[in-house]
Amino acid sequence: MTTSPRLVVRLPLGALSGLLAGFAALAVAELVSVTVRPEAGPLTAVGGAVVDRTPTPVKDWAIRHFGEDDKLVLQLGILAALAALAIVLGMVALRFRRAGAAGVLIFGVIGAAAALTRPDSSGFTDALPSVVGAVVAAALLYYLIGRLTQPPRAGRATADPDRGAGWDRRGFVIGASAAAVTSLGVGALGRYLTGNASQAAVESRNAVRLPAPASPAPPLPPGTQFKVPGISRFTTSNKAFYRVDTALVVPKVDAGTWRLRIHGKGVTRPVTLTFEDLLRRKLIERDITLTCVSNEVGGPYVGNARWLGVRLADVLAEAGVRPPSKGGPADQLVSRSVDGMTLGSPVEAAMDGRDAMLAVGMNGQPLPFTHGFPVRMIIPGLYGYVSACKWIEDIELTTFADYDPYWVKRTWARKAPIKTESRIDVPKPLSRSKAGTVMVAGVAWAQHRGIDRVEVRVDDGPWQDADLATEATIDTWRQWSYPWKATSGSHTLTVRATERGGRVQTKKRTGTVPDGASGWPSVVVTID
Ligand SMILES: Nc1nc2c(c(=O)[nH]1)N[C@H]1C(S)=C(S)[C@@H](COP(=O)(O)O)O[C@H]1N2
Ligand SMILES: [Mo]
After folding, report:
1. Same domain for 340 and 429?
2. CB atoms within 10 A of CB 435
3. Residue of 244, 276, 370, 453 with fewest CB within 10 Å of its CB?
4. 377 lies in a domain?
5. Which atom of ligand 1 is found nearest the CA of 243?
6. Residue 232's pLDDT band (boundaries 50, 70, 90)?
7. Whether 64 and 152 share a structural domain
8. Residue 312: which CATH number?
9. Which of 387, 410, 433 is the last residue of a domain?
10. Boundary (domain end) residue, out of 187, 203, 219
11. Which domain holds residue 393?
């Protein structure tokens, strides 16, 4: 008998063995990670490490193309890469059985290294999911390949016609099926237990009763919301609010065990606060528009919510913090989250009288898990990456000279006030409308400065004043609309906003790196 027909059968079976071993590794790792830390699982750990090491332009590209699905795409990509490598290892193992199994162990080492070097790593136990998963997978691969390359042991009764062809078909089928079924069960059990572990956090959130604010947000003045179809609602619902973060698994923090530590340079009375401590204090409620520095001109990463929280300046003052203008030694406030993210804000901005807060509520609800439950920071006027720490657990007073937080280490600016911007919500780009009055409308923002004017230009015509909705506060965006007498043809609509004090939104087009995109938004539309 020649070897080629057997190879044709064995190669796919080797590949299948590799896939089964990879699947077993992930299932076992998932189950072990329940007892260690869900975030220490190999997919999350390797995914997180990839996110941290991805060059900023690639990350920006991913956000642009996949939006809030970027994490899903990343995890599917990692799974696909793992599957390809597992197939190769399985086929290699047909020839080099020990080397194939050892290859699986190398992946265990990579997964363990990723888990141990995550900023939120809780120590050597974080290596366990990857290590145990890899050992089980290596043993499984070694066993299955053995069935493919060795005859069944003498004496075993078998009617296998391939017997003597050099492999144990029955042993392989039984081993492979048992491995597949067991992995499915183990994986499902792991998923189920992970769900239970976050149950305490879910219950703690359900139990939150937000107190009434001592300083409520002023009622929205009439006229903040235009009735133009398609315009962004003045208040963005929690569901519709954009989400930008690096968390592959949304942290589920139990409010009952949550603590916030405040310490560092110039802190004369370090404090550790509980969630109850925060709720017992006087709460303020404010409408504040948050924007992401990764928002392209005309992009979706901006939203306005009614936040409820504790005034950050008061908490800092009680800890003995003085802003630099009052002689304090720290000019940077570094917030750290439970998942190891770091954000740096100017201490001056946190204490200069604006409504910077440790927020516990969003639009009348406890913070959604995706938006930072139980507590996040909000500082009006600053992009999210230098102000809006979600799942916050630590505030350290330091200096800009001494410490660069996460995004600053990755080419973004140390300080990033939000740039004056505007957006055309309607008409949609490349849409068609009938000649006559077409409503051009959208939002404009210049947080903590205020919007005074929005102008619209049709093609190369003169700038025309748009109608402005009533301003809620200088920290919120402002709607605008312009009834355009549209004539047939293809037209370019361009918009620019002017902030209080007269500075016009810059025409200069820049990308998002390092401190936010700028330029006038425009859309091309066809009028029939
Ligand atoms: N812990 C943590 N907080 C974070 C981030 C993050 O990745 N991790 N991203 C920041 C960025 S870049 C922005 S724009 C805002 C977005 O807040 P949102 O997701 O509630 O809209 O959160 C900020 N806070
Ligand atoms: Mo952001």
Report:
1. no
2. 12
3. 276
4. yes
5. 19
6. very high
7. yes
8. 3.90.420.10
9. 410
10. 203
11. 259-410
**Of 398, 392, 250, which is closest to residue 310 (Cα–Cα)?**
392
Ligand 1 is surrounded, with C-beta below 6 A, by 241-246, 290, 292, 337, 339, 341, 371, 384-385, 388-391
Closest among 140, 195, 186 to 19, alpha carbons compared: 140
Residue 153: is its pLDDT beyond 80?
no
pLDDT at 165: 61
CATH code: domain of residue 522: 2.60.40.650
| Per-residue confidence band for 155, with pLDDT thresholds at 50, 70 and 90 | low
State the average pLDDT over residues 63-75. 82
* 3-class secondary structure, 220: coil
User: Coil, strand or helix: which one is 63?
Assistant: helix
User: Among 211, 347, 365, which residue's Cα sits nearest to residue 281?
Assistant: 211
State yes or no: pLDDT of 298 exceeds 90. yes
Q: Is residue 252 part of a domain?
A: no
How far apart, in whole angstroms, are the C-alpha atoms of residue 475 and residue 466? 20
Percent with pLDDT over 70 in the chain: 97
Residue 346: what residue type? P
Q: Is 433 left (phi over 0), alpha (psi -120 to 50) or beta?
A: beta
* Residues 446, 385 share a domain: no
Residue 217 within any structural domain of the chain: no
Evaluate if pTM is beyond 0.85: yes
At CA 88, angle to CA 85 and CA 92, rounded to 5?
A: 135
pLDDT confidence bin for 4, thresholds 50/70/90: very low
Residue 248 lies in a domain: no
Residue 504 DSSP label: B
Q: For 159, list phi and psi in degrees, rounded to 5.
A: -100, 15
**Encoded tokens for 487:** 């004539």
- Are 438 and 403 members of one domain? no
Looking at every residue in the chain, the average pLDDT score rounds to 94
CA of 291 to the centre of ligand 2 (A): 7
Same domain, 329 and 365: yes
Total structural domains within the chain: 3
Give 239 Cα–ligand 2 centroid separation in angstroms.
Answer: 18
Could you tell me which residues are beta bridge partners of residue 382?
417
Q: Atom 10 (ligand 1): residue with closest C-alpha?
A: 385
